[in-house]
Amino acid sequence: MKKYLLFLGACCALHVAHAQTPEDALRNSFFTQNGTARNMATGGVMGSLGGDITANNVNPAGIGLFRTSEFVFTPGVTLNNNKFNFRGDPSASNKAGFNLGASGFIFGIPNRYGGRWSSSAFSISVNQLANFNNRVSYKGRNNQSSFTEQYLEELIRDRADTNAALNNYIFGSSLAFRTYLIDKEVGADGAFRGYQSLVPVSTGVIQENDVTTTGGYNEISLAFANNMADQLYVGGSVNFPVINYNRDLRYRETDATNNSNNDFNYFEFIEVSNSSAIGANVKLGMIYKPVEYVRLGLAVHTPSLLSFKDNIRSSLTADTEGYAKVRTESSDNLNSGNAGDRRYNMITPWRAIASGSYVFREINDTRMQRAFISADLEYVNYRGARFAASDDQDIEATNYYRAINNITKNLYKSALNFRIGGELKLHTWMFRAGGAFYGNPYQQSDELKANRVQATGGLGYRNHGIFIDLAYVHNFNKDVNFPYRLNDKPSTFAGQTGSRGNAMLTVGFKF
User: Fold this and answer.
1) Using CA atoms, how far apart are residues 496 and 86, in angstroms rounded to an integer?
2) Pick from 347, 348, 344, 312: which is nearest to 330 by CA?
3) Nearest-angstrom CA–CA distance, 87 and 175
4) Residue, of 6 and 481, whose pLDDT is higher
């Protein structure tokens, strides 16, 4: 944790419109698998199973099992049920939203001319890898620290004079200074000695953090695979992530006492931001049948190269009672009515997936297959995420991202994810179940803990080239959430538990 706090000092030393943090890297890599309803109902096992358009995003060799063509569409709905414990005070929040599972076209191409390859397949699809629709909301009493102390750290560390405090930090510290939430500290001799916060931390404040997010991490995939004698399948996909993340933050501190003469009643900070990105990655894989009934799979995902553009607007209202009464300031007033913007690049962690399946009555005519059980083991190197300035001539930004990258290596670790599931087929009806565990990405596992546990189930119907699948996935989540971070004090955080339910429907037909 000490290494993590050193990063905060580096952040405070820069006058940036919107500071990226290691949490941004985790948001774009720590997510559970999404796909068709068939795939989700079986726990997300697609490393060696194949025969599903979800393979584009997991192991592209899996589309090599197709000999015919089909269209797939997978809408879904997500319901978040979050529970928080912030400084001993429990709270809860809920938010629902729509999502899109793996959807698109697969074209199976039998080889009619002989040779070593029996068939080939090409696929184009879109899949939402992560859904950002969520709400985080909690409150509690704190007599140890205040949100405003991060502004003090920034101004003191930069040795900012009053002109800098007024104008150089228009998305944070300058707003606090202009509303007198932060003010000059003057000695008995009238000399300027630094800055002070008017928030009476020692007598306690009621802190409320409310964050609503929307958007998603979507991936457009172009995949190709070959089938050698129904025994070896090899494939690859070129993928284009398209990310949109919207964040509406409302943070408030209120005097916990009834004292109307302590120069503080409340303040409220509002920040509205948007982050969008496009990028590219490659996924390679193979599936091998060493004996009848058994399938073994191996896939590697290269890091995604992402190009981000962020914009941000913020405002602050402070009621300092008799000191300066109620005042409001916004970044728009200090930036000619414009949002702040920042461009940067990111490299996500690489992944590797090893898997195995056992298919009962494994024959080429899939209508005659009776059941399967399958499992995936996935390795993710979360500490390998990296940020970089879009302009390598920007020395300040380059140094800033170097600091983020160093702390990312110290804050996160590699982790293993495990998925298992199966299907029982009774003529035209299929019954499915599964589960998954996504491991903790934090190194400081005694202080910061996060994981995802899934229970899945569903059913499907296939007849005359038309199929309909239903799935429900229940996620048991564990994580932490920081309302703010300080360099010279332990950073307070809320423990987060709760669940996320995903209901998915896939409809498709062969052509």
Assistant:
1) 9
2) 312
3) 27
4) 481
Q: 17-141+206-510 sits in which CATH class?
A: mainly beta
Give the pLDDT band (50/70/90) at residue 365.
low
Closest among 354, 353, 347, 355 to 382, alpha carbons compared: 347
What is the average pLDDT score of the chain?
A: 90
307-342: pLDDT as tens digits: 999 999 999 999 999 999 999 999 999 999 999 998
Placement of tokens 């879009």 in the chain: 390
Q: Report helix angle 2-12 to 395-411, nearest 10.
A: 160
* Pure H helices in 310-468: 331-334, 395-411
pLDDT attached to residue 332: 95
> Is the pLDDT assigned to residue 286 strictly greater than 50?
yes
Question: Is residue 249 a contact partner of residue 275, using CB atoms and an 8 Å limit?
Answer: no
Question: How high is the pLDDT of residue 8?
Answer: 42
pLDDT at 358: 94
Instruction: Find residue 230's DSSP bridge partners.
Output: none
Residues 6+ apart with CB under 8 A from 393: none
Interatomic CA distance for residues 15 and 5, integer angstroms: 18
Q: Which residues of 98-121 are buried (b: 16+ CB within 10 A; e: fewer)?
A: ebbbbbbebbbbeeeeeeebbbbb
What type of residue sits at position 54?
T
Q: What is the 3-state secondary structure (H, E, C) of 12-76?
A: HCCCCCCCCCHHHHHHCCCCCCCCCHHHHHCCCCCCCCCCCHHHHHCCHHHHHHCCCCEEEECEE
Domain boundaries, the chain: 17-141+206-510
Nearest partner of 387 among 16, 1, 3, judged by Cα: 16
64: left (phi over 0), alpha (psi -120 to 50) or beta: alpha
Query: How does pLDDT run across 91-112, given as a tens digit for each residue?
Result: 999 898 899 999 999 999 988 8
